[in-house]
Amino acid sequence: MAAVTRFHLLQPSTLLKSSSILSKYHHATPFFTISANNNTDLRQFRRGRGYRNLSTIPPLRCNSENSSSSTESNHSIVSDLLDYLNESWTHFHATGIKFSGSLRLCILRMTEAKRQLVAAGFHLLNENEDWELKPGGRYFFTRNMSSLVAFAIGEKYSIGNGFHVIAAHTDSPCLKLKPKSASSKSGYLMVNVQTYGGGLWHTWFDRDLSLAGRVIVRAEDGSFSHKLVKIKRPLLRVPTLAIHLDRTVNTDGFKPNLETQLNLLLATEADKISNEKSDASSKAAHHQLLMQILSDELGCQVEDIANIELNVCDTQPSCLGGANDEFIFSGRLDNLASSFCALRALIDACASPDDLLNEHAIRMVALFDNEEVGSNSCQGAGAPTMFEAMRRIIDCLGQKIVGECGFARAIRHSFLVSADMAHGVHPNFVDKHEENHRPVLQKGLVIKHNANQRYATSGITSFLFKEIAETHNLPTQEFVVRNDMGCGSTIGPILASGVGIRTVDCGIAQLSMHSVREICGKEDVDIAYKHFKAFYRTFSSIDRKLKVDF
Ligand SMILES: [Zn+2]
Fold first, then answer.
1. Fewer beta carbons within 10 angstroms: which end of the chain, N or C?
2. Cα(63) to centroid of ligand 1, in Å?
3. Would you list the DSSP string of 82-143?
4. Reaction catalysed by this chain (predicted)?
5. pLDDT digit string, tens, across residues 333-343
């Protein structure tokens, strides 16, 4: 005990009482807004009709605090999610951007996340340049067109205050073209692919598939730019073997060899033109026929295509289903549904200038690539992208005199919601779930627990997150995996252990996870959106009431 008396217990929050460094900042200029009172207007705006020149377009106002509470509580984002899913065939489309010429030239056309953020008044930052930030400002940047960090700074922010973050991932299990994809078999032109992530590969058979992704294009002046491409017509197919040639498939299971039996059918070699082109390009990395289709889509010459990075995609549009249209049938729900709910919650929680007026924290969304393969990449959650951004924000607002102490205090005040889809109980496989933890569709976000830290949820973080739901009359559910089964994981533990940030793991319940065609409940999407928006708007006040050691 004697030794203990020599140590003073420090409260992180009292190391530097509210700094006066930021007092020189004044309120941000209010954003001009346009009303988007119905979904049709909103969708038309987002689909690109009416916004040719982004610089003349006022930021879009979604659902602000000024909306009547009944309108807001009834507002559904599901149709917008369907639009987002149908636009976002790849992680690039979900996140990225199309540039004209060099990377420094103006933005010509944005893809979904960026388009929505710019429309909502968020300013695009470049990680390669100095940032100028101010309280009340809204900002974002992307990396590799597949990870994104967006944030809005509270007007009352002072150094050491926290970041309130929702993090999700933009990638999904899929098939990706090999660097040399062209092959020929038995008179067919085939396309060879790599498997990405832990997909349910049998679901990719007999689907109408196509290609989408990023292409590096050589310009006339010798410079290179990247272009997003999406070929909407069914272009590829992996046929299953007929039952007559595989009599035991229904009893022994379908176990395709992923190297030799998952190649995609592009064309027959019977066509004269295909034959000629195929012969001429027999040593080419990709079939000439495929490259011609790509160049037609891009409006360039085949010779100008310097490199391609393409995913195989299902062409069937995302849609509502079920007798009451209560389900969402779509690919990539894991985890674009979470990404979209997080983005919309941030945009709508900062829609009006008043939204940030009394905010002491920084509201943030962080979307990462490569979660499905472990997150260890430049654009994955294993890279320090988000924490570097936090340091830069603090340095920027504190005029670079803050030091590590400011960052450490900010982290201790921060809270991370790791949002990733959850396993709803399957009616035909009920026993796969622990008997008291069987999340069902349409019953709210699932809080994920794991004693072995496969999820980062703690008693404190689950309490805080559920408290938000309770004060907004939103349902939640709990999930824990059976002791006799392995547990999945998320970016939650990676980020939580990176710098010691309080984290809760949660997600929308779904079925058919990692199938080419997944299912979730429409109601859950709206509940997640409301829960996330409430997190941004009320976490500061709820956190202030917490008197515990965390
Ligand atoms: Zn996921």
1. N
2. 27
3. HHHHHH-SSHHHHH-EEESSSTTSPEEEE-HHHHHHHHTTPEEP-TTS-----TT-EEEEEE
4. Release of an N-terminal aspartate or glutamate from a peptide, with a preference for aspartate
5. 999 999 999 99
